[in-house]
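Re-running the complex after MR caught last week's input typo. The corrected sequence lines follow. Everything else is unchanged.
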Amino acid sequence: MIKEKILRDPVLNEIHVYDQVILDLIGTPEFQRLRRIKQLGVTSEVFHGAEHSRFAHSLGVYEIARRIEMHLSLFYPSQTAGDGLWDKEERLVLLAAALLHDLGHGAYSHTFEHIFKTDHESYTQKIILSPDTQIHAVLEQVAPDFPEKVAQVIAKTYPNPQVVQLISSQIDADRMDYLLRDAYFTGASYGHFDLARIIQMIHPYEGGIAFDDKGMYAIEDYVVSRYQMYVQVYFHPVSRAMEVLLQHLLERVMYLYQQNKENGLQNNFVSPLLQPLFRGEVNLQEYLMVDDAVLLANISEWRLNEDSVLADLAHRFLDRVPLKSMTISKQTRGLLPEMRALVEAVGYDPNYYTAENDSFDLPYDDFDPEAFKQRTQIELRQQNGDLVELSQRSTLVEALMGREFGDARLFFPREMLQEHPVEDVMAPIYADFQRYIENGQLIEPKPTDSVK
Amino acid sequence: MIKEKILRDPVLNEIHVYDQVILDLIGTPEFQRLRRIKQLGVTSEVFHGAEHSRFAHSLGVYEIARRIEMHLSLFYPSQTAGDGLWDKEERLVLLAAALLHDLGHGAYSHTFEHIFKTDHESYTQKIILSPDTQIHAVLEQVAPDFPEKVAQVIAKTYPNPQVVQLISSQIDADRMDYLLRDAYFTGASYGHFDLARIIQMIHPYEGGIAFDDKGMYAIEDYVVSRYQMYVQVYFHPVSRAMEVLLQHLLERVMYLYQQNKENGLQNNFVSPLLQPLFRGEVNLQEYLMVDDAVLLANISEWRLNEDSVLADLAHRFLDRVPLKSMTISKQTRGLLPEMRALVEAVGYDPNYYTAENDSFDLPYDDFDPEAFKQRTQIELRQQNGDLVELSQRSTLVEALMGREFGDARLFFPREMLQEHPVEDVMAPIYADFQRYIENGQLIEPKPTDSVK
Amino acid sequence: MIKEKILRDPVLNEIHVYDQVILDLIGTPEFQRLRRIKQLGVTSEVFHGAEHSRFAHSLGVYEIARRIEMHLSLFYPSQTAGDGLWDKEERLVLLAAALLHDLGHGAYSHTFEHIFKTDHESYTQKIILSPDTQIHAVLEQVAPDFPEKVAQVIAKTYPNPQVVQLISSQIDADRMDYLLRDAYFTGASYGHFDLARIIQMIHPYEGGIAFDDKGMYAIEDYVVSRYQMYVQVYFHPVSRAMEVLLQHLLERVMYLYQQNKENGLQNNFVSPLLQPLFRGEVNLQEYLMVDDAVLLANISEWRLNEDSVLADLAHRFLDRVPLKSMTISKQTRGLLPEMRALVEAVGYDPNYYTAENDSFDLPYDDFDPEAFKQRTQIELRQQNGDLVELSQRSTLVEALMGREFGDARLFFPREMLQEHPVEDVMAPIYADFQRYIENGQLIEPKPTDSVK
Amino acid sequence: MIKEKILRDPVLNEIHVYDQVILDLIGTPEFQRLRRIKQLGVTSEVFHGAEHSRFAHSLGVYEIARRIEMHLSLFYPSQTAGDGLWDKEERLVLLAAALLHDLGHGAYSHTFEHIFKTDHESYTQKIILSPDTQIHAVLEQVAPDFPEKVAQVIAKTYPNPQVVQLISSQIDADRMDYLLRDAYFTGASYGHFDLARIIQMIHPYEGGIAFDDKGMYAIEDYVVSRYQMYVQVYFHPVSRAMEVLLQHLLERVMYLYQQNKENGLQNNFVSPLLQPLFRGEVNLQEYLMVDDAVLLANISEWRLNEDSVLADLAHRFLDRVPLKSMTISKQTRGLLPEMRALVEAVGYDPNYYTAENDSFDLPYDDFDPEAFKQRTQIELRQQNGDLVELSQRSTLVEALMGREFGDARLFFPREMLQEHPVEDVMAPIYADFQRYIENGQLIEPKPTDSVK
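Corrected-run output:
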């Protein structure tokens, strides 16, 4: 242990580091790079305070894990192997995994992955395991198999289920930090919950992590906060609209890049640091050179590009001209081809100027063995030691359980909603489009309307 | 007036827009560009939450001005010209000036200005006055002379002193927002004060803005908060160290650029968007194309540059390897050449690897007609209408008044402080350097030491 | 209007008074008396911060009403009678009713009313309408029918439904203040919601008060907060236990009082100020002389009373020796006589030392014409002006709607749960009692157990 | 150790108890009595939220001491006797002294002590040492000499200076809790400081408690907060006015009591529980029977007393009719007899209706061996282990040091300030009185005025 090092953090107040290895990991270029990757990508276009980085979030996850570990070693230290209590030897692997769990994220994460077919979890593991990174060098100093162990925690294959669940479960250090942090930086007044109380209620058992029953209300509040952050922030239609813009913009770049290549033309409209990604042959060091700034600087140059679609999309993205949207339902989904046709009729390529996008999430669900994406259920420990699943104790959670929140939307250029002068030959098309919308929803327009 | 538009803000809770012109100004590319300029530049390297943008700050200044204006029109509306009360006709010019006051800031503002000899206040006025900007186009719709009026407020030449003081004085909308905002995002627990109370205490008079005497404690608290933010955040030695790095890095680029030019070589190591700045011939549109991302993306490429000094400085800046520092006093300033010589002796170019830097500010001072940078004093209105200067009412402010806070420092590579093995031929030089430091201060080493 | 008067409030920051009549009402003895009535009665025995008074709460309700009224007159001032907008003439009646709505509360309200058969709402109206009170004198200065109008608002018979709903509905100034205030003083981290946002979303219509649909999440959050305060604070089993103690104590006093009376003995163990209540002939002035302190001082004297049951109950109440409790269900309710018999068997009079107590509440319910206690539903205003009931828009509220939260409990002396030495002849009775409890619930003990 | 018991606290979030002895001390009647003693006495008449009890404060001091002790045993456990580090054996004596330090306070403490010549510190020790209290019984179970040790800490005679300074010094658990708690409940927005940071900076040494130099700003902020609470809350003129009323009221009761006694009349206008105090022969059990409620209930009865001065003072106290005040200076002090004479001239007994009252305090002062009330200076530990007194490191504290804040005031009936009709024969006297006041200060009236 070193003499404590303290970092000021607006969400958790202070982040304490007591281990030289943690300090060294923070100091690596691979970790410092996370300063240049925004945690919420385009969300800051809607919530202008949300400029916080994955660097800050990663420190936060580390700090929450550290507080949990301190609680576990003080109150539930294992006495004999297999007693289901906390093994203090797991301390460093837990802290390192918490700190490093997001290491592989790329610029504007989800869109980036979709376009370049990358996967941040796999890159996180590569960075940890590759002998060429400083992260690996630091981890290796702990023990030769330490990088492997940390990678296993992130891959959820680590043998100790307590360690895995503290990093990835329905109520883990990662989620707790991002909910609190995103609430703080967006200014959402809804995402708060009592972190200290939840940590205090953690009770390990052989199968993982449970919570004392007297912490039930704090956990209930966490589940509600999580729901609120989803419906209000993560699913916000305007940030989804900006994400659609970014995705279409990159698709356009990819299209132009391929065109040039096929025609034997140079692709110097893409900066050297981005080239490997478009070429489709990116190595780890090249991957790590790309951050939000590199992507944004390219988009700034593309704003002046001779391809008018690319230049327009870059303008819309940089100058925040989001697509508009309407909700669609099962009943109205059949109308989408008509809507796209109307957008095309006034001159927009529907591949770049329209999109369909769903956002759904289950706020809490108990363990369903058939579920595609298995979720760990939250267990409450009764006075007599029995574990009871949360929704059996909380009427509120039971009420929420298994319900889906979110919506499906069609995105389209905001120009479709504007009034156009009668002399504009396109005016009837715009008017026709607008007939399909009521209270923000796609509707079957009334026949009488179409007669007019 | 339009139907109110509300933006969520973590510091002020909500930002309310009631005027189409304000909404249109926010929507211009020139204003949206401020999203890509960090408010505190390199400070986020020390306070990792401080990633907030000048966009957010500008909205905040607008919102505070709006709240003040609402207070003034409700409680102190002018009845007859010259009665010293608030003229409601000034509303829009106040709000527009508040919103736009930072429009001309460049990337990593202070360093940028120093290197490229630009001035953000003059650029702010250019953007407002140039017929080519969308900002100008929007302002002009209000009235033909409206851009000129807004520019005058920013230049402090506007005839109504109340409007000018609300934007620039010792306790104005700008300062109040940045203190609260910087405290929020850095997580400093010291920078808070009671904004609502201070606004409520504002009392206009013919010469400007005074405060009701019963608000004295709130203002006292503001003065203390301001002092605290200065000594703890703005003067932080590590963020000054990062700023030194950035400055030296850009000086190195400038040097290489000139070298290449003189040698007739290409300067394509600088991206097209930055070229005009290094050429020294930047027009307004080119100026506006440069933001933090463009600069950062260039630094990322420079990390691979063949010039080892540039590459090293870029690495230190991106991977956060700040220079270390010690405080210097009048007595020890004479030792600086020796210190620089020792740094050079182990192989660092002292022009790029050392720096001297002062940070001083007066936390509050009353009006001193001789002062270089004139400051408006804070006036408290007594029961009988007399105005009394703050320090005559507040023992605390009187105690602080006229005192300077801050320090002067020498910056140098952190390697100078490390222990070096005896077999290292440079080891005695490092040891010699370290003799000059005690408790973080530059000292005259004891003669006995030098004997050793 | 007078020059604004500001009261510092920890929950709402500041309370602003602009009307001399409001200031005068606050200054009356009848209103000042509320300083000596705790808002939450015995709840401070569980949440030790919750010592706040009905005085503070009443000011809070006034302040929230004032903020709502300011919003309504700024954004929705009525233009013509019957346009469904806000009639500014209602301002003062709204503010006065908000301030005075709790005037009639007695000491430790609910218990007090139960024992002395008083009703605080009827006393509130008496105080307002009686020509003998200073409250009445102040109100009368506004207009001769003004006391009557204020009383009507409290009785919900006032013709303007907007005024009535702002004081009493599912989301009114009263509830909003007490939820925030009780959360603040108990320290519950769950009861917060975004008051400013909710106020801003208020939209009057001819039938009352609706909310803009874009405020839906803020209202959803309010409904959840309300639920959380109920289950965690208002229904807390220990505070119900203390209330049971107080009630039985007063019943014992009443019993002794009647006994003495029948036996022609003096009742000087009851202080002069309390005598009228026990005599059953209390006039308004006498009623107003009784506050928490008067009741508490009597209980302090009763601790030394020669009646051992009274002395013991007074000791338990003052020294915080609450009864313990277990939950009971429909299935186990039949066992209650056995439980009471066991308590009696060890020497406690079950009338004073046991109690059954239910706490149930519906967190939100839409309007049910059959319901005993009619509730106004919360209406959301859509873009096109339609009103839609909250649960049709909020999946979360729909999930909660109509569900009951709370429990039924049997209270008994904590001594029943203690271990007793084998030589204690009562030991088997205690053991028998304890067999009926598992995880805090009353259960049917297993037959095998009873064999032992 | 027992399984942790958690109490919800609005200021410190949670209070944790791990020791059965602490739990038992909390459960004693002597400690529960503190629920019925307000922490700030009459201050709640000005800051209506400040109804918090000494019970809550005492728990808070305990909790802060517990957190400090945890910090000390984790980071600075003593290895060998005399190494200046923290001796874990002191844990329980520290916690018990922290919890019990205010045990002897009477109702409305300072006034009470002044009238009845009692001293709360000496009563605290009596309660701890007397074999008749339950407090003593619980403490004795730890060790026979344990009550004595706890009493020594409170008397500052305990041999370990670290324990003593944690309970009583310029920055101790007691002050830290009351500043935070009083700020929270009054709603003062100024009294906050970073408790967690200060605790973390605590560094024991053989002579007591020092703080790491890097905590300097947090301590500076504490000193400022303390100053702010003094000038804004503790010295508030209206709460001093209410205290004057209470004092004069009790003096009147004392006078009447003596009169009756001398005349052989009954004193049954004083309730049995208060009798011993007025008789001047109070034993410990009798002392402990008196709390705020007992005193308040008496005052309620006195409001109906036949002595018109007593009845009027009781009315003014209960119905909050504070005396008004003006500041007096050395220069104007000589005018006080004239002012009193004018008050008497309109019919008020100046002994009961006027008062002179000073409030001064030094916000921070270093150790002055001559000072009447010795203060421990705050020491900062430098990198090399040296201790440096705070004001030598903090320009802000140096600026504040040794300055006195506060004022001296004359209190008088508010009627003196009212306008009186010309026909009132007393009108000229009121007018004369008012000539002596300007901007709230006592002044020498201008001669021209007196001519009129």
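None of the earlier attempt is carried over here. The domain at 238-317 of chain A is CATH 1.20.1250.30 (Growth Hormone; Chain: A;). The CA atoms of residues 331 and 443 of chain A lie 9 Å apart.
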